[in-house]
UniProtKB/TrEMBL annotation:
<dbReference type="InterPro" id="IPR013328">
    <property type="entry name" value="6PGD_dom2"/>
</dbReference>
<feature type="domain" description="Ketopantoate reductase N-terminal">
    <location>
        <begin position="42"/>
        <end position="186"/>
    </location>
</feature>
<keyword id="KW-0560">Oxidoreductase</keyword>
<dbReference type="InterPro" id="IPR013332">
    <property type="entry name" value="KPR_N"/>
</dbReference>
<keyword id="KW-0566">Pantothenate biosynthesis</keyword>
<dbReference type="InterPro" id="IPR051402">
    <property type="entry name" value="KPR-Related"/>
</dbReference>
<comment type="pathway">
    <text>Cofactor biosynthesis; (R)-pantothenate biosynthesis; (R)-pantoate from 3-methyl-2-oxobutanoate: step 2/2.</text>
</comment>
<keyword id="KW-0521">NADP</keyword>
<protein>
    <recommendedName>
        <fullName>2-dehydropantoate 2-reductase</fullName>
        <ecNumber>1.1.1.169</ecNumber>
    </recommendedName>
</protein>
<dbReference type="InterPro" id="IPR036291">
    <property type="entry name" value="NAD(P)-bd_dom_sf"/>
</dbReference>
<dbReference type="InterPro" id="IPR008927">
    <property type="entry name" value="6-PGluconate_DH-like_C_sf"/>
</dbReference>
<dbReference type="Pfam" id="PF08546">
    <property type="entry name" value="ApbA_C"/>
</dbReference>
<dbReference type="InterPro" id="IPR003710">
    <property type="entry name" value="ApbA"/>
</dbReference>
<comment type="similarity">
    <text>Belongs to the ketopantoate reductase family.</text>
</comment>
<dbReference type="Pfam" id="PF02558">
    <property type="entry name" value="ApbA"/>
</dbReference>
<dbReference type="InterPro" id="IPR013752">
    <property type="entry name" value="KPA_reductase"/>
</dbReference>
<feature type="domain" description="Ketopantoate reductase C-terminal">
    <location>
        <begin position="210"/>
        <end position="333"/>
    </location>
</feature>
Length: 343
């Protein structure tokens, strides 16, 4: 389901970008310094977020390699990546591979797997990273950068970005964009340059000294709505009209804020306004957790309400309402179609 508030779905005005460049695999170079030309990117996890940002960067002339699953890679190799937005529908030639070794030579790796796959993705790229290569997590959840660091070690540059976008894969090699598309980046030696080059590619970005607070704000929003929307398979506008739902959401938010405070997080936004704003601005939207459950995919719940419950337990903050959401979604996950068909 698309976030109908943000933008209409792009019309089918099939506008194709000419194949001015053949897709090229990233070439192995002595990769201990940033490229003096445009930064070279790799995307680990060519799903909707990675394909969206990767496509804009490739269109702007950056060398970009997508690492993804075979069906997406085959489609991208055959036809380029199809990006459909409210205003355009384009195919962009872009290098794609199923082999993580193809990231060799990247200055920046955009890690855009789901939070459930963070460590395994980090392990797969590790042998192919340059000493200077920045691994930037483009994920929901507040500890992906730490988890990547725990695999790659303290010497590898690693940072978390906050991703404000609404995208979905519509089919192999076909990404749909529904709204926004901006990034908040952590300070790093390459961040100012990244901001400039991202802007030139049509990706608004800012450097923030409080990415953690912004990630936590997103986490609180996710904890407020995602499980609830998943459990009843209903969009946010419907949820908030149900008797008692606003109180339940308030209770979820209060627990999250108590954990955040105990963690010493400086929240980046007026969180109550942000939580209310979601139902008002995305009334027709189902949460990503609801969509994952509906498709029989594992959800990121362990990194949303699950994170609050684990950190709450460690910090002696009670989180019974988040725990209820977590346990209910876990139960629904065990009932998902493929799980049910397993012996
Ligand atoms: N979509 C959105 O609008 C937004 C998403 N986010 C966050 O961004 C992150 C990415 O989300 P999204 O792009 O929607 O997720 P997707 O599931 O669309 O993309 C992740 C892709 O990575 C693939 N993948 C996982 N592990 C590997 C691997 N080792 N090698 C190759 N490919 C791999 C997955 O394949 P498979 O499914 O087969 O495992 C999947 O195709 C999430 O944390 C999400 O919460 C944040 C803001 C908005
Ligand atoms: C902001 C929100 C709640 C929008 O659906 C989201 O991030 C999600 O579904 O995971």
């Amino acid at each position: 389901m698309c976030p109908s508030h943000i933008a209409g779905i792009g019309g089918d005005n099939d506008r194709f970008i000419e194949r001015t460049r053949e897709p090229t695999a990233m070439t192995a170079t002595a990769h201990d310094t940033y490229s003096s030309d445009r930064l070279r990117f790799a995307v680990m996890g060519a799903g909707s977020v990675g394909c969206y940002f990767g496509t804009l960067l490739a269109r702007a002339g950056h060398q970009v390699t997508l690492i993804g699953r075979p069906a997406h890679v085959q489609a991208i190799q055959a036809r380029g990546l199809r990006l459909q937005t409210a205003t355009e529908d384009i195919h962009v030639p872009i290098s794609a591979s199923t082999d993580p070794a193809a990231i060799t030579g990247a200055d920046v790796v955009l890690l855009s797997v789901k939070s459930t796959d963070t460590e395994s993705a980090a392990r797969q790229i590790q042998p192919h990273l340059g000493a200077h290569t920045l691994v930037l997590t483009l994920q929901n959840g507040v500890d992906n950068d730490e988890r990547v660091r725990s695999v790659l070690g303290p010497r590898q540059p690693v940072g978390a970005a906050v991703v404000y976008v609404a995208t979905a894969m519509a089919g192999p090699g076909h990404v749909r964009h529904y709204g926004r598309g901006d990034l908040l980046l952590p300070p790093s030696p390459v961040s100012e340059r990244l901001v400039r080059e991202l802007a030139a590619a049509g990706i608004p970005a800012q450097v923030s000294s409080n990415v953690r607070g912004a990630l936590w704000s997103k986490l609180v929003i996710n904890c407020a709505y995602n499980a609830l929307s998943a459990i009843v398979q209903k969009p946010y506008g419907w949820l908030v009209q149900q008797d008692g739902a606003l109180q339940l959401i308030d209770n979820l938010v209060a627990e999250c804020l108590a954990v955040a405070q105990a963690e010493g997080v400086e929240m980046a936004d007026d969180i109550h306004a942000a939580v209310q704003g979601i139902a008002a601005s995305m009334p027709g939207q189902l949460s990503s957790t609801a969509q994952d459950l509906a498709r029989g995919h594992p959800s990121e719940i362990e990194h949303l309400n699950g994170h609050i419950v684990r950190r709450g337990a460690a910090l002696s903050v009670a989180t019974p309402v988040n725990q209820a959401m977590l346990v209910l979604v876990r139960m629904l996950e065990t009932l998902r179609p493929e799980a049910a068909s397993r012996p």
